[in-house]
Amino acid sequence: MKTYFTEQQIASPILQEAASEIEKCRHYGFCTATCPTYVLLGDELDSPRGRVDLIGKMLEAGGVPDPSTVKHLDRCLSCMACTTTCPTSIDYGKLIDIGREYIEENYRRPLAERALRTLIAKVLPNPALFRLSMLAASVARPFSGVLGSKLAGMIAMTKALKPQKSDFAHLERVDSSGAAGYRVALLEGCVQKVIGVQINDATIRILSRHGCEIYKPRSVGCCGSLPLHMGRGDEARALARRAVDAWHSAIVDEGVQAIIINASGCGTTIKDYGHLLKGDPDYASKAQIVADHALDISEWLVRIGIEPVAPLGLRVAYHDPCSLQHAQRVTSQPRQLLTRVGCDVVNVPERHMCCGSAGTYNMLQPEIAGRLGKRKAENISRTKPEVIATGNIGCMNQIQQYSDVPIVHFVELLDWATGGKKPVALCATALNRG
Amino acid sequence: MATSSQTAVQQDDLAEFMVAARALVGAEWVDTSASKVDRFGENLMPEGNVPVSGVIYPNSTEQVQGLVALANRFKVPLYPVSTGQNIGLGSRAPVLPGQVVVELGRRMNRILEINEEMAYAVVEPGVSYQDLYDELESRGHPLMLDTTSGPPQGGPLGNTLDKGAGYTPYFDHFYMSCGMEVVLGNGDVLRTGDGALEGSKSWNISKYGLGPYLDGLFLQSNYGIVTRMGIWLMPKPPVTQSFFFSFPDDDDIGEIMELARFTKLRGVIPTLLKVTNDIYAFGTETRFPLDRADIRKTIPDAVRKEMQTEHGIGSWVVSGAVYAPTQEAADAQIDVIRALFTKSGKATYIPQEIADENPMFRIHSDSFIGKPTRDEFPLYEWRPGGGATWILPVTPIHGETAKDHQRLSRNILERFGFDYICEHVVGARMSRALHVLVWNREDPEENARADACYKAFIDEYAAAGYPVSRPPTAYQPYAMNRLGHSFLQTCNNIKDALDPNGILSPGRYGIGLHR
């Protein structure tokens, strides 16, 4: 597709990058079939190729974006399903991030929306504030009828969530209980550190059991993913720099071999740190080194191998988080590991479709997210699983709202099968090892 | 060639039709906004986009019937599409400007039945290969799909009606279809075969029943809108084992075709054979080498040979598969095939274990297990610019003739400055030779060359005695005219009988342009 940027515009590296991606689009339309919003809404402007056009026109025109453009770009889940079907390999992720950042800088949203977005951007990446907000949500729950629909939806979403305590919270380093002599760093995340500590604990146990010494630098907080997807690029880069400082020194000074991520949304951002900070001469090369060391937990465990103590023998529906299957193209490793520990792994129909979680999407676009969540839960139920496993805390919370089947992070099952604890979500069930 | 005036619609009639259509299907399911409608007119062919008057999304056979009645009343031409993009064959754009697209994929996408015991499914037009694959997978794959190597969002109903095919023993999609429900152009609903019997219990298992066999009328035609169809499915074999052979030279196509005929006629190989040329194979993972060749010309043989070496293949890759109850039985079948194909000493055998590590080969393995794949998409990017089409002449499974056809194709492509990118899909007696033509459609000069190239294929293959089957919409009238007056006149007579106002896809496959 031709672009019509002026010479002055194209001098900007960001617009140059955008133009080169937009020009790759041939309007084949393969992306439409896998785009959740197009499938639901049937509007070309809610399809990837429609949005590519909108971003192009918005950037070419400059100035204040059209509210309609903002609406259609806001509806994008950033699930990247389109990138797996695009024959011309458009880097849609970069393009939508550029579009979002442009909107954030040039468009004034209505007050309530601004307040909500600021609340999300400030609270979620900050575990202390997030804990406090969950307490506030429990107080506000009886009054949610008088709050706006989005805020009420967010409060309802927290109902099933409880802040938890980690067995390893106080440690910055966990020793290996195996002999292999690996050294890794672990991202504990921000949201996950509050409502998904069982995932981090299971990860630490299985890593330690398989010969890994684990670093958890305290200075690493949010990886930047949440603000990035809300168009808050500067905030994202600030958080990324903090993480790069900590991990780069762990790699260079401590000999850390890999940065392990068990929240796949974060993994996508960290693996792209090289690009995110490429305009910062002080950080560009360090960020690329960190990105090159980033691995999803499943990639690392396949690399080092795991030893089950008893086969689980469970029928497990594996839900591919978009960030793993589309952005990172990690699909076989979780299945391989679950099969290794004796699970009967079944694929979910429409496995390419997002569950509607998509970072902060289910808070900002609750109607579409709800439809996607229900659709995902229905597709999962068709496979008649005993357990749902996935690789991202966001997907777990989203799907749990619409499904009665217990849902866990796959690493919890792997930990259990290799001698760890029974996953919390399964404790009330009769399911057992072997 | 038809012109827009042949299907000119009175704007008042169109407006009244749209009002009535909104009342019938619901206002939200009728769209005339440019941002959506224009997409349906987009076309990768040299002729460019075709303006569309609107898009309607019906939900049932009854609604389709209602729309056809309205179209007859207001003399508004309809253009039904199922699911997928039809890239390379005309996209979703009508043959002529001004037609109203009836988009069946969005709402009529239900799998109506899967009968595991009798091994068939009944689907609506919007059911995609991926949908059906997912459904079978969720049932533990008791049955296997036969899919094309095209995009997973294409569907079995539309593919069958356009005479599409796959690769497994159920490759002949029309032969493996059984029982259609069709809204004719005159508004009647026809249930073909045993389905014509009220309360029929054998609609989707008995093909020929009583009376004339009408199903074939709805292939590559414009006599009706098929709203449901039965398709037979193959029980999934316990073991599927693919095999691959690489042949070094262009002219090895002769030996390959002789081996193919021998093995296919005798039932040695249950699948079709895919005989894939070098660029078709490595074009899925690399692009035209701009640093080594002139993009305005056919890639030189020397460069092509270099690329063969780089990708570890020769001029042709042959693939197929066997099905067996056990791995041992599969291995024994492979041994027989291997002995035959390597006897002359030219072929190199590539076992599935090695091939599966390479996406270039995995495309083929997936075909033989009925798994939809999108791995062929990158072929469209072999040359930059987004123009893409398929040219599908028929080639007999005869060594010398296949060599002649290769020479003919290479000669045409070289004259117009394009590359020979070809995969023969080989049965016992004939192959459909899938030629991929890619060009820069943003360059008017290249567009003109691509247009002339396609027409040369139609003309020169016709002169040699072979039709180019399944042309894109833009070339359908041109290709049909090569079949002679009597054939086309008969098609038009049937059109007059079943669609007297000519409101269904006028011009599709050249039919209905006689008025």
TrEMBL record, chain A:
This is Glycolate oxidase iron-sulfur subunit. Keywords: 4Fe-4S, Electron transport, Iron, Iron-sulfur, Metal-binding, Repeat, Transport. It is an enzyme of class 1 (oxidoreductase). It catalyses: glycolate + A = glyoxylate + AH2; (R)-lactate + A = pyruvate + AH2. Its EC number is 1.1.99.14. InterPro entries: 4Fe4S_Fe-S-bd, 4Fe4S_Fe_S_CS, Cys_rich_dom, Glc_ox_4Fe-4S, Helical_ferredxn. It comes from Sphingobium boeckii. GO terms for molecular function: 4 iron, 4 sulfur cluster binding; glycolate dehydrogenase activity; metal ion binding. It comes from the Bacteria. Binds 2 [4Fe-4S] clusters. It holds the Pfam family Fer4_7. Its cofactor is [4Fe-4S] cluster. Residues 66-95 form the 4Fe-4S ferredoxin-type domain. Component of a complex that catalyzes the oxidation of glycolate to glyoxylate.
Automatic annotation (TrEMBL), chain B:
SUPFAM superfamilies: FAD-binding/transporter-associated domain-like, FAD-linked oxidases, C-terminal domain. Keywords: FAD, Flavoprotein, Oxidoreductase. Signal peptide: none annotated. Its EC number is 1.17.9.1. It comes from the Bacteria. GO terms for molecular function: 4-cresol dehydrogenase (hydroxylating) activity; D-lactate dehydrogenase (cytochrome) activity; D-lactate dehydrogenase (NAD+) activity; FAD binding. The keyword Flavoprotein applies. InterPro entries: Cytok_DH_C_sf (IPR016170), FAD-bd_PCMH (IPR016166), FAD-bd_PCMH-like_sf (IPR036318), FAD-bd_PCMH_sub1 (IPR016167), FAD-bd_PCMH_sub2 (IPR016169), FAD-linked_Oxase-like_C (IPR016164), Oxid_FAD_bind_N (IPR006094), Vanillyl_alc_oxidase_C-sub2 (IPR016171). It is an enzyme of class 1 (oxidoreductase). The keyword Lipid metabolism does not apply. GO terms for biological process: lactate catabolic process. This is 4-cresol dehydrogenase (Hydroxylating). It comes from Sphingobium boeckii.
